Amino acid sequence: MATHDIAVLTTGDELLSGELTDTNTGTIAEILSRHGYQLRCSLCVPDQEKEISAALSYLVGHVQFIIVTGGLGSTGDDLTARAAARALGQPLVINEEALEMIRRWFAARQRVMEPNNERQALLPQWSQPLANPYGTAPGFRLKHQNCELFFLPGVPSEMKAMFEQSVLPVLRRKIPEVSPLQQRNFKIFGLPEPRVDSMIPYSRLPQGVNVAFALDYPLVVLKLKAYGDTASELLDQAEAVIVKELGEHIMARDGEAPEANVGRLLIHSGLTLSLAESCTGGLIASLLTSQPGASAFLERAAVTYADSAKQNWLQVPAMLIQQHGAVSEACARAMATGLRRATGTDLALAITGVAGPDGGSEEKPVGTVYIALAGPDGVHVKRYNFSGERKKIQRMSAFMALEWIRRFTLRYLDS
Amino acid sequence: MATHDIAVLTTGDELLSGELTDTNTGTIAEILSRHGYQLRCSLCVPDQEKEISAALSYLVGHVQFIIVTGGLGSTGDDLTARAAARALGQPLVINEEALEMIRRWFAARQRVMEPNNERQALLPQWSQPLANPYGTAPGFRLKHQNCELFFLPGVPSEMKAMFEQSVLPVLRRKIPEVSPLQQRNFKIFGLPEPRVDSMIPYSRLPQGVNVAFALDYPLVVLKLKAYGDTASELLDQAEAVIVKELGEHIMARDGEAPEANVGRLLIHSGLTLSLAESCTGGLIASLLTSQPGASAFLERAAVTYADSAKQNWLQVPAMLIQQHGAVSEACARAMATGLRRATGTDLALAITGVAGPDGGSEEKPVGTVYIALAGPDGVHVKRYNFSGERKKIQRMSAFMALEWIRRFTLRYLDS
Description:
Two copies of one chain form a homodimer. By secondary structure, chain A is α/β, with parallel strands linked by helices.
């Protein structure tokens, strides 16, 4: 993927102390990517004149367009204009046009201008001020050798408006029009990343399509990317190859969450579902019901922590629990069967296991999970041994359960 | 606050295309700040050998410690080791110690090692490998002139574990001990940020204590910060003031999640709980059971989407639902009462509402939610009108329910 000669420099102590996450870089990157541009780099420095100045000196020699955010406010730690003047060798002077912008901003709101606000008009000598529709601090634009610099406030709403109004049009005029990135995402469950990678027949993917991976536990996200006028066709070809090789492992595509896909399939099939969750404690139900329309297929769900709940609501015999334990193949089977009898749904899924950190034994260590699915053709049960801490085991268990439902529904729709 | 000679370099196309927000820089910054260190700068570049290499060359001349994250995976877009070798003028060789770590990782899990995984042992010649407890990719450590470089994987959980295990101890040994930032967090529910701000008697807070805010929907996080030898005392004083003013609105403190605090209080009180969720679809149960030890108080939970489920499991009369609707004060009351009768728990909480986007009416628009709590002293019911989209309404509803349980339990413990 080609990068473009654009860099972002953000300033702010709180971005480097872990207090605040920088969103401005992401906002700029996202807007640029819609126009086919990718940033060459982003940098973040504290509110210190020396550090801002050093970063500017580095970037001026490295890229053609620099977007700086933050440090244009009226308080003592707003030092960006001063740092820019120093890095670019220009004196700092009151910019009359900027001062007029600030005056008008206060006048329009019938508010009194504080002496501190005048400082916001102190800019490097050759600056061209940029209007700020939402705040007092004007931005500014500077040329230095072959480089163009844009200085914007750090407040995200002000930054975004000014970037779109004053920076993007310049970039689009000066950087040759490119066709934007197109992308297809495949969310893969049940295979680790190197395994997925080894299953991709790279030689059969059309040239111009790039493959990238991301993790979204427990999913591996496979991304196909292409640029240019033929991107759609190339991606269609690549997608056909990927779907042929990985087909059944693809749990969802593009922006859709796996739980949304499962819900959509259930609605499409007309199948109804009930759930009995022990170790996942309601996570499966919560995932499915986070999507609109879940009431069309989900009849009910039970979180049956106590044995009495398993006996009452799921008609699991007390004797069976005593004999085999609540975490057992027999119990999972009885939970699913009892649930289906109680609810009359097409599918009844039950899950019982040891999510930890306590409750494990030698025979059934933490991570032991039984899933049972009762359907029109009988009950299917399987034991899993998941690893990791409690929330990870719960999440993996919930996704495995969703995957069972997805595969059953797909086969049902096929038949 | 003084900055220290530490920089973070993150790599990844998706961080510069707006697809993914970098959290690793924030994680490192936050851990460092607990030890009194602040980053001098952070940099982000795409998965391109040339750009990674250029950034490393710049940083090597600028700071003493560099932490690099990302690009250590087994696929073609993992180029960090190669870029480091180029920037530092070292050949790339198979590191036997790293290879052994990878082999052991697979052997311990009885999994087959893919040929691609061997590539993860290709490191710059003088690298010292760093163990990765959670994944296949070892990290590595290098010295170059006066600079020390640490290379860690980009997966946040692996990165964090390795940073704490292999990097932090080195930094603490090599950078003079400073008095770290001390911080107290208060997670406040039910009040908007400007309201919280206006309730703080700033003049009564001791000098040297700073106040900051963050949002973690639906919570407002109030942070008190102080440096230096007297930080603890100053924060004790400030905390007393804050607790006096905001006391009952503080749902949890510091690192504890509200659901963990509620669970802890329930365990402490000995009260047992059952849940009947309609519009929240299992979210309350899922939050409570994500914490270890939930089985001590949670007897069971029902997600009763269908009316038949409300009738069966909660003994809500069909007539009542016909007359008042499933989203009604009468139904919420009947759900809680029926649940308590069925389970025999001390507390039975029921919730029913319209999470949207469909199902709203003029009388009961999307966001209408009834919460009912049945306890030893009878049933309490209340109607709420929440706003926002489905997931936001579900989250707000779940937190409100947790808040009911928390306040009941506190009063119970007080009495």
